[in-house]
């Protein structure tokens, strides 16, 4: 996830682009850059925020009427000056900005290297622009045609803009998977990841469709499909306010991020799992395969929501890879004198990659010789750098303080890891592995389906919005989901919600239950279904108000529960990715109804970089 | 802990004793027995409750004016008919009932066996009566003198009554450590562990002191010290009601059990730890020393409060014995497919020894070849029997549903285990081990001191009795204490209290904190003291109401906290035994003030024998 902006018209391009990039910083902010056409093609880029780029440009000449800019959220290559966009081709005559992931970049790069192309960054995007240059040169075709042909070569997701010194009054763009909108002004055009950089200049926009190529040349807009079929652009009037657009039409970043999950889960699997090709591969695991195969124990260190993802991973790794797993609060781990051996693998989970306690915990584990494996969302973050190997979650920047899409991305990546390690260790039946791989690919669609419960959940939220307490119960794979559901509610609605393994309820918490206590029970069909039905009856016997998350078609629990939320069936090992969705929505709607600041709840910070 | 009753006078002894035993069943109920003198010395005894004994006696002849009875709480030997009291001597001419533990019984038994004495039980008490018979025969002295000399031989605690066929109108009793009260009627005497079996016949009582020997013969009472110095008995008038006496003068069993802890902790160490003799020995560990030395991993399975004791044990075993420990909810452990190896040791913790989930968890672990070590309070319970080895906690019967003394007894036993295993593995410095052994012996005195905080805590309880929510925070060894403190409050006051590792607060729960939220912080002086002071400041900055448990003399935290409770300093590894005391008292007083049924909180059961 990155932000892109481009301009072609009669105004000065640079200030428009810089201002637009600032609006898009919610999409990424690890580095930023700008390219301006004014006879030659100048690129300015810098690690950091857009304001760092501004300072860097300073008084340098920026006069131009055609330009493009990018604010980055790293996916390939750490955030630094050279990995920042735009990227030149080897000849430096053309340049690209790119939002997305090119999955087959490694293979393309090998070919391009053999043909003498040079690379100054670790990005997939630089491969893209050299591929375009290669086709442009070899086929002796127009740049537009070269772009079109290049799009047939790349696998993955992209929104790109390409500028060339040889066509000083032209801007070429294309998209697949990543968003792009064109702003249509008077003799000027704007192009951006969303409408926020555009809206103060024009309210007429065109949403570019997947596989479309946009050419704006000499004041004319032309849109064709990848197959070179011209399309008639549909111009729409924007009626949204700025801050709403920034949130993609959602009222809050958190809601936007909840709804992004089918996509962010898919992004986290992209290039790593292709079931019908029997492809399951993560670079970090492959590199350390022997360590994982020989591992006596896996220690997982994390805090907060990441710790919950770690609990899911414990169940996955123990069940499939048959390695004993211990999940530790990073803060507790680092201050006691834990037993750490050189044969231990420590998995550190952190969305920001900057969580101070987690970072300190892995430094401790490293000093004892353990292998550190980082699972972070922010590329090049401190934890990613301090790890021996790792896997990024590719959820894109998470702005809402209460983590949602980062959690499901973590669980996705940890699931793939566990399956890959299980395969390497020979501890999983081939048929089971295949079944789970196919199921994993279906998860985004099931999440999409679970998101359709929104209206129903809003109704339930309205019923319970004023209660002071909540209990959340789950067993097995749904136990961490219960903890996570409770944490979400706690964080944003300030309702005291607590999660428990369902069977532990009898050992104390059941005393809390009376006719005023809502109890959320995650009771999808799995191996402990009968047991959790008993737990529901125990709650009911004490008059607790039951909200049950059940598998579609369940006809037993609806007889007992006050409210039932049906989620699509999924293998029990994968069900957390689906069953957590209604809990995220429930906490969101309750918090909104209580008038809480959902995106910036009191007392909390997005990334806890203090101890 | 057992209950004893005796009678000598003009009434029928049997019904008085049986009725008295029923009153004392709170002291133990695993087996019961009665001895009656009527020319010969008859003993009736049976596994089970007093009602089982009654059924067993049925229509058998019980006419007698001198007798004694016992309701047992097993310490040596499982609960069965032969281990029930009274115990005959080998000649069957004398018999004993005994409440307490004879620590040097094994050595005494060896000598007695060599002299031809026979044993029909596994008890230390049968050793005691044979020792008396041996002295009686060899020294050719009176039974009274034989008892007196025997008391010089035994090490430990006792309240005993001895009857002899040769002295049909005599009753001899003695005590050290275990309670005993004499009821003085008209030409009749009663004797019991507390006044409940006596009060309906007389309100004049004499409390027997330690090291006193009581002889009632031909209607006369004579009390002498162990050194044969006659003392003048102090006759007091009872003004208490029956149910109050049963609870030892406390309003509730829970409070009584809280105040019993100096004693129950000492009982749990008795015979296992003698610091100045450098003695640290637990039978179950000695037997399985090689397993512990070679252990790759310890798995602890438990539920509720026992699970919290397990968390303390995790820290102890990792720090001192350097064995990786994983603590699991028994219910979660058994339903997933956990990795269990033959080199694993599974420690199962359960007060009742009947917890269904824990029992099922160890059956699973056993089936995979792991060694099972049970830590239970009830001798001969299902978990004790299902274990390969174990250590009893000797806390005595716990009647209050909310566990208090069982928790500290568990932690005591687990601490001794960790230290003994550390010594065997050579992972602890000798000087550190010595220091901790001495410190452990001082813990009961420190608990006694902490109990003096009662009045202050009552005041704090009054301030917070009406709040709906509480947070409990601790780090390191005090993190499980925070969980336990919260669970206690939840169980008996129905206030939603939740425990957290202090540093995790920033990752969510801090959102709950405002000027209405009481936050109990356990902040004794230890290696993370500075960090928890920062956590207190974070709470304070959000206007949370801080109740801090601190080390005596702390002059930093009192500046920040609304209430400060000072506990005696203790080594940080042992501090849970001290720091948990004020939390037990706080929950107790709040519950009482809220009018809750402290001993039988709603929805809960003492021992959870269902899944």
Write a compact overview of the structure shown.
Chain A has 611 residues and is of the alpha/beta class. In chain A, the strands form 5 sheets. The first copy, chain A, has an 8-stranded antiparallel sheet with strand order 3-2-4-1-10-9-11-14, covered by helices on one side. The longest helix of chain A is centred in the C-terminal third of the chain and has 22 residues, at 430-451.
Could you characterize what this model shows?
The structure is a homodimer of 611-residue chains. By secondary structure, chain A is α/β, with parallel strands linked by helices. Helices cover 37% and strands 23% of the residues of chain A. Chain A has 20 helices and 26 strands. In chain A, the strands form 5 sheets. An 8-stranded antiparallel beta sheet of chain A has the order 3-2-4-1-10-9-11-14, with helices on one face. The first copy, chain A, has a 6-stranded antiparallel beta sheet with strand order 5-6-7-8-12-13, with helices on one face. The longest helix of chain A has 22 residues, at 430-451. Chain A is globular and about 80 Å long. Chain A starts with a strand and ends in an 18-residue tail after the last helix. The mean pLDDT of chain A is 93. Chains A and B meet through helix 11, helix 12, helix 18 and strand 23 of A and helix 11, strand 18, helix 12, helix 18 and strand 23 of B.
């Amino acid at each position: 996830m990155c932000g892109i902006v481009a301009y072609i018209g009669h105004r000065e391009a640079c200030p428009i682009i810089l201002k637009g990039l600032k609006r898009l910083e919610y999409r990424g902010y690890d580095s930023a850059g700008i390219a301006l056409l004014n006879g030659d093609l100048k690129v300015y880029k810098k690690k950091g925020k857009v304001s760092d780029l501004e300072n860097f440009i300073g008084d340098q000449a920026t006069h131009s009427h055609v330009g493009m800019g990018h604010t980055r959220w790293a996916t390939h290559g750490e955030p630094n000056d050279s990995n920042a966009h735009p990227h030149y081709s080897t000849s430096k005559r053309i340049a690209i900005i790119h939002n997305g992931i090119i999955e087959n970049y490694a293979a393309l790069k090998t070919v391009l290297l053999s043909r003498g192309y040079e690379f100054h960054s670790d990005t997939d995007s630089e491969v893209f622009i050299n591929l375009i240059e290669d086709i442009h040169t070899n086929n002796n075709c127009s740049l537009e045609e070269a772009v079109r042909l290049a799009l047939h070569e790349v696998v993955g997701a992209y929104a790109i803009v390409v500028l060339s010194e040889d066509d000083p009054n032209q801007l070429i763009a294309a998209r697949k998977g990543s968003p792009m909108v064109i702003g249509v002004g008077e003799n000027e055009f704007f192009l951006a990841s969303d409408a926020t950089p555009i809206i103060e200049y024009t309210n007429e926009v065109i949403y570019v469709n997947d596989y479309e190529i946009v050419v704006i040349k000499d004041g004319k807009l032309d849109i064709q499909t990848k197959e070179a079929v011209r399309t008639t652009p549909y111009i729409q009037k924007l009626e949204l306010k700025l801050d709403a657009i920034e949130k993609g039409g959602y009222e809050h970043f958190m809601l936007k991020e909840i709804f992004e999950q089918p996509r962010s889960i898919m992004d986290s699997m992209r290039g790593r799992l292709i079931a019908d090709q029997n492809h399951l591969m993560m670079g970090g695991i492959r590199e350390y395969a022997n360590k994982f195969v020989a591992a006596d124990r896996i220690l997982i260190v994390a805090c907060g929501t990441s710790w919950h993802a770690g609990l899911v991973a414990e169940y996955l790794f123990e069940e499939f890879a048959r390695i004993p797993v211990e999940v530790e609060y990073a803060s507790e781990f680092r201050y006691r004198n834990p037993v750490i051996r050189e044969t231990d693998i420590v998995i550190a989970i952190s969305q920001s990659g900057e969580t101070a306690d987690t970072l300190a915990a892995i430094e401790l584990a490293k000093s004892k010789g353990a292998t550190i494996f980082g699972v972070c969302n922010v590329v090049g973050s401190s934890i990613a750098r301090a790890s021996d190997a790792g896997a990024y979650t590719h959820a894109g920047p998470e702005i809402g303080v209460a983590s949602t899409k980062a959690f499901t991305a973590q669980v996705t990546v940890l699931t793939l890891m566990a399956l890959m390690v299980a395969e390497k260790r020979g501890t999983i039946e081939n048929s089971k592995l295949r079944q789970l791989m196919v199921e994993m690919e279906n998860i985004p669609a099931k999440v999409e389906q679970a998101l359709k419960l929104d209206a129903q959940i809003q109704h339930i939220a309205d019923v319970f919005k004023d209660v002071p307490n909540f209990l959340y119960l789950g067993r097995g794979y749904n136990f961490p989901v219960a903890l996570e559901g409770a944490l979400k509610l706690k964080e944003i609605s300030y309702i005291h919600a607590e999660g428990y393994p369902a069977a532990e309820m009898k050992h104390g918490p059941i005393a809390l239950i009376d006719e005023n206590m809502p109890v959320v029970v995650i009771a999808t069909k799995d191996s402990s279904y009968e047991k959790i039905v008993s737990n529901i009856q125990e709650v009911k016997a004490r008059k607790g108000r039951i909200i049950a998350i059940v598998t579609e078609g369940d006809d037993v629990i609806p007889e007992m529960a006050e409210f039932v939320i049906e989620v699509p069936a999924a293998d029990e090992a994968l069900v957390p990715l689906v069953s957590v969705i209604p809990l995220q929505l429930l906490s969101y709607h309750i918090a909104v109804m209580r008038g809480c600041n959902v995106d910036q709840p009191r007392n909390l910070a997005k990334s806890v970089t203090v101890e």
